[in-house]
Amino acid sequence: MKTVGKEARVYFEERKSKFIGSVKSVATRDEAEQFLASVRAIYPDATHHCSVYRLVEKGQEYYKTDDDGEPSGTAGKPMGDVLTRMEVGNVVLVATRYFGGIKLGAGGLIRSYARCAKMAVQEAGIRDYIEKSVWLLEIPYDKVEEVEGILREDAAEVLEKGFAENVAYKVKISPEALERLRNVKNIFLLEL
């Protein structure tokens, strides 16, 4: 399965309407909904926040589109069609629109939202999807540099970091990075 390589944002104008495409790789519906909420919070005064997510969570496929007040089938579905054609999954895509005063018509909306989706995915890049899991790491201070190198190479998501007698990380990592971490001496690993 393929997904987007990084979180990305694109922008373009179509007949005075401003479109902002935001995309991110996700593993769960909760992550997708949180991303949508975060985009809504960034652009609270936008006219529309149309969205689509397509993912597999614990073996179950989920696909959801939302036209957010645009005429039915003119926003979420065309964006979903782009994800399908580009063979991208485990992804959430939000197209934010600021209405510019000129109506685009159904065809214009479909083209604009599809363009927004395609631009966002192209900006993010496409890569193989690697399912990551959440782990708690407890690391002696003399191993921090080595562990952080492994996390950087993996593009691991550091969810929390704390300092006490040892350094504690809560991270989302790939199976390959986990194997590399298991080879580091004196660290404690716990799957959450």
Structure description:
- The protein is of the alpha+beta class.
- It folds into 2 domains: 127 residues, 2-Layer Sandwich (Ribosomal Protein S5, domain 2); 59 residues, 2-Layer Sandwich (Alpha-Beta Plaits).
- 33% of the residues lie in helices and 38% in strands.
- The strands form 3 sheets. Strands 2-3-6-4-5 form a 5-stranded antiparallel sheet, with helices on both faces. A 4-stranded antiparallel sheet has the order 9-10-8-11. Strands 1-7 form a two-stranded antiparallel sheet.
- Helix 2 crosses helix 3 and helix 4 runs antiparallel to helix 5.
Radius of gyration: 20 Å
Task: Please report the total strand number as a whole number.
Answer: 11
* Total of helices: 5
CATH architecture type of the largest domain: 2-Layer Sandwich
How many structural domains does the protein architecture include?
2
Helical residue percent band: 25-40%
Q: Indicate the CATH topology of the largest domain.
A: Ribosomal Protein S5, domain 2
- Give the ordered list of helices and strands: EEEHEEHEHEEHEEHE
Sheet with the most strands, sense and barrel status? 5 strands, antiparallel
Shape: elongated
- The helix-and-strand class reads alpha+beta
Low-confidence spans: pLDDT under 50, at least 5 residues?
A: none
Order of strands, widest sheet: 2-3-6-4-5
How much beta, percentage-wise? 35-45%
| Average pLDDT figure | 89
The CATH superfamily of the largest domain is: Impact, N-terminal domain
According to CATH, what is the class of the largest domain? Answer: Alpha Beta
The separation of the N and C termini measures 24 Å
